[in-house]
Design goal:
The protein is α+β, with helices and mostly antiparallel strands. It has helices spanning 17-27, 81-88, 99-110, 161-165, 176-184, 234-252, 267-282, 308-317, 340-343, 353-365, 388-394, 398-412, 416-425, 431-442, 455-460, 463-470, 480-489, 516-522, 538-543, 550-554, 565-571, 573-582, 595-605, 616-638, and strands spanning 3-9, 35-40, 43-48, 63-64, 70-78, 120-128, 133-138, 147-150, 154-158, 199-200, 205-209, 216-219, 259-262, 287-292, 321-326, 370-372. The mean pLDDT is 91.
């Protein structure tokens, strides 16, 4: 992905070109295809280009308007360009312009409202020389990162935190509250980072700043569940979703390089890979697929079987798929090498990055710069339809309720009594009784026991109060969409480019199922359409009935992305022990991370029978917590 950076001197002092040059030097690994800068009085824009789309071959860095007074540093890919052409009245002869030129034209027509008319993944900073205003925006889900800092004298921004830190006066200090929330599993608003004073612009936000003023942030889009969409026939819903899926996938294929796609054997990634293969076959092109399989030394239980059978059914259906297989042996699950921070500014948030990184490297070896994925599917397009039984019960639709329970029991291979107890009776039960029953039946650990934050640090940061204030009763609305809407609108959903960048900074991973149109539509579709025939994720299945291979279409199980994670963690025990030895009990990192819990968990995963058990606490404590302990150690030394 490309990189952008720059600053605005709020006191109107002319910009020093050496400063934006220093920023670009810290970001050069993100934009190998050319870089440059733009200066106009107090503002400086920098851009390092990663050329992906055919139109990007025309780009200069940054892109300048024809009037010479406008310039834009742009990172991203616009979707549905034909619709944008039409809305902007772009003549046919000019419909091959790069994406940043379209953003400039959108800004000229709609001003600060232009971001609401743009779709895709993007972050940009646009300087309007007439109004002396810097206008910045990110896409609806924050798929592209935009970090910024202001001290009253200068507003600084960049694609990556290191681009912000490149300027003098920006503090390299730890934000302890954000660290506490990450270590303790407490959600925090999407604008916070691990660096005090450096913020991230959340999804669906614009930021405007002028000399002499403070940055003004505005939300330009919100996810909503109203008004509900009502179509005449059930088939109409499937056809409408299919059209959106086709268009979103075609938009993601806009590249002049070979294309790769994740192929896990699950509904979401397989659906996107198959749609991409169909489209590319019509063009006479091939699709590289990257898939996980288990290594020969795997000795886990039968419950965590690999998914190669489902994957091969897709390969058989689409002969233009060229498969590559990852066994997850190229990279360790956790490592404590400062080399990570030569190109990254924060810990790796992908617990299973040893798998993800290998998949990206395989695709890169085939010349791909784009790896399609299926993230976000089960939150929108392939939503399970949970909560429908509760909805029928609350509405008094008893005959429909009985029929639907029977359909779901048959489709899911479960008893009707179990489904009735869990999805009809449970939501009507007082919360205290549900919690008591959970502890009695399942011996579930308390929420705080799943994490390795030091108790004294948690108390100092008032984490218990924060956890209570942000806690949701996940049984209150079994329709997960209801819980999801405020999370999306608070900017807490998107992982941003942090999911891709640590693995392969010169690649992009479009996620067609994170398309804004699809989410807008799916959150307003009647809940029953997702599970009309009793099968979870039924709307997605109906939409892709002729695309998915039959075994994938019929499956109701869900596999693990990395079933060998626990075994690979155990293999990292010597490296973890070395880190513990290098940071003895009195080291400052253990004022944040609870060392006794780390040591106890390490003994658990290396003990007898560990490979045949599964506990999510292992990966949280030994991956997330130790990565953050290493980050604290590195940050202290780097400062």
């Amino acid at each position: 992905m490309s990189a952008l950076c720059g600053f605005l001197n709020l006191d109107s002092v002319p910009a020093d070109p050496a400063l934006v040059t220093a920023q670009l030097a810290r970001l050069e690994h993100l934009g190998p295809d050319g870089s440059g800068s733009f200066m106009d009085g107090p503002v400086a824009l920098g851009h390092a280009l990663l050329s992906i789309t055919p139109e990007s071959e025309q780009e200069n860095s940054p892109w300048r308007g024809t009037d010479g007074r406008h310039a834009i540093a742009f990172d991203g890919r616009l979707d549905h360009r034909d619709d944008l052409y039409a809305a902007l009245g772009v003549p046919m002869a000019e419909r091959g312009v790069p994406d940043p030129e379209l953003v400039l034209r959108a800004h000229e027509k709609w001003g600060a409202d232009c971001a609401a008319h743009l779709e895709g993944e993007f972050a940009f900073a646009l300087w309007d020389g007439r109004t002396r205003e810097l206008f910045c925006a990110v896409d609806a889900f924050g798929a592209r990162d935009f970090f910024h800092h202001t001290d009253g004298h200068r507003f600084v921004f960049a694609t990556a935190i290191r681009g912000v830190l490149a300027l003098p006066g920006v503090p390299r200090e730890l934000d302890e509250l954000t660290l506490a929330c990450q270590l303790g599993g407490v959600p925090r608003h999407g604008d916070h980072t691990l660096y005090a004073g450096i913020r991230r612009l959340p999804g669906a936000r614009t930021l405007t700043v002028r000399p002499g003023g403070a940055p003004q942030v505005r939300q330009y889009w919100q996810l909503t569940m109203e008004p509900e969409i009502r179509l005449r026939r059930p088939e109409d819903y499937a056809e409408a979703l299919r059209e959106m899926l086709d268009r979103a996938t075609r938009s993601a294929l806009r590249t002049r390089y070979p294309v790769a796609a994740m192929l896990s054997g699950g509904l979401d990634s397989t659906g996107i890979a198959c749609l991409a293969a169909r489209e590319l076959a019509a063009r006479g092109q091939r699709l590289t697929t990257v898939s996980n399989i288990l290594p020969d030394d795997y000795h886990g239980g039968e419950w965590s079987r690999e998914e190669s059978g489902f994957i091969r059914s897709a390969l058989e259906k689409y002969p233009n798929m060229d498969p590559l297989w990852s066994r997850g042996l190229a990279f360790p699950v956790v490592q404590f090498d400062d080399a990570h921070y030569r190109l990254n500014d924060t810990p790796d948030d992908d617990t299973k990055s040893f798998r993800t990184r290998e998949l990206f490297k395989l695709a890169q070896g085939r010349g791909a710069r784009v790896v399609l994925g299926g993230l976000g599917g089960d939150m929108a397009a392939s939503f399970k339809g949970t909560g429908y039984l509760e909805q029928l019960a609350r509405g008094g639709h008893w005959l429909d309720l009985v029929r639907q329970i029977r359909l779901q029991a048959r489709a899911r291979g479960e008893t009707a009594r179990g489904i009735f107890r869990r999805e009809v009776l449970r939501p009507f039960t007082p919360r205290w009784l549900r919690r008591w029953n959970d502890r009695l039946r399942h011996a579930r650990p308390e929420e705080a026991d799943r994490f390795a934050i030091h108790p004294a640090f948690a108390e100092r940061m008032s984490l218990a109060e924060l956890r209570s204030a942000t806690a949701q009763d996940h049984d209150l609305h079994l329709d997960f969409r209801v819980q999801q809407v405020p999370m999306v609108n608070a900017g807490m959903l998107g992982a941003g480019a942090s999911w891709t960048r640590p693995h392969c900074p010169q690649m992009e991973s479009p996620q067609p199922l994170m398309n804004r149109r699809i989410w807008d539509w799916c959150h307003r579709v009647p809940l029953g359409e997702f599970i009309r025939d009793g099968r979870p994720r039924g709307l997605f299945r109906r939409a892709l009935h002729d695309v998915l291979p039959e075994p994938v279409l019929r499956r109701t199980s869900k596999g693990w992305f990395a079933p060998d994670l626990q075994q690979r963690l155990a293999a990292c025990a010597p490296a973890i022990a070395d880190f513990l030895a290098q940071h003895p009990a009195g080291d400052a990192v253990w004022s944040y991370v609870h060392r006794p819990k780390v040591e106890a968990t390490l003994r658990l995963i290396t003990g007898p029978g560990a490979a045949d058990s599964w506990d999510n606490r292992y990966q949280i404590i030994l991956c997330d917590s130790l990565r953050r302990a290493h980050f604290v150690s590195w940050l202290r030394r780097a400062a």
